[in-house]
Amino acid sequence: GNFTAIQLVYNAVDDFTKHNIATRFRSNLAGYDFSVLGGNFDNRLVIGGDFAGNLFEAGLRGEGIFSADENNFQENFVKYILGVDYQFNPKLYGLFEYHFNGEGTKNNRKYDLDRLLKGEILNLNRDYIYLLGTYQIHPLLNGSLGYNANLNDGSGFFNAIASYSITENTYLSLGFLIPYGNSLSEYWYYAKAVYLQGEFYF
């Protein structure tokens, strides 16, 4: 049907001495978009999937993977995200997500900071929640406030953004990142930040 597709991806590595390969099937069932995938990425066997649809008037979606070392199947982990969002009225939108990161650890003294600094991983711990609210202050001005919390070490951050539409295809945004946490907690390593972002669509 119109919503069904199969993808196959092959990526040669080290002059074809190694490779990454994956396949993904996606379709629609009972009003839900879904997909399943499987492959080999950097010597790890991976299977996973995702779904998106509606739960009454709210949006419901999730995605997850199971990953194992092809040479040691005991070295495995599971990751998944479950989320729900809702448009309360034309101006107010809200989102809630829970993220389980089986690759991480609850012991902050065992955090893999080296892999984080290399960009190989994004999260250090296991359990997170994320809350986001956006509000249209004016037809040309939108504001949003996000909150990300590490549920195990008590750290987190707030992210506030104001976005102004200069023209129909040009946006200018001012953002603030405010982390918090005790010594050696995950977001204790992050600095407070202010940033300016410009977007142009053509």
> What's the quaternary structure here?
single chain
- Low-pLDDT runs of 5+ residues are none
Portion of residues in helices?
under 10%
* Mean pLDDT rating: 95
- Count of helices? 1
By secondary-structure content and strand pairing, the structural class works out as mainly beta
Shape: globular
Number of strands: 12
Radius of gyration: 20 Å
What does this structure look like?
- With 202 residues, the protein is mainly β.
- Helix content is 2%, strand content 66%.
- It contains one helix and twelve strands.
- The protein has one helix at 113-117, and strands at 5-13, 18-29, 32-41, 44-55, 58-69, 72-87, 92-101, 127-138, 141-150, 156-167, 170-180, 193-200.
- A twelve-stranded antiparallel β-sheet has the order 1-2-3-4-5-6-7-8-9-10-11-12, with no helix packed on it.
- Strand 5 (58-69) and strand 6 form a beta hairpin.
- The protein is globular and about 55 Å long.
- The relative contact order is 0.09.
- The model has no long low-confidence stretch (mean pLDDT 95).
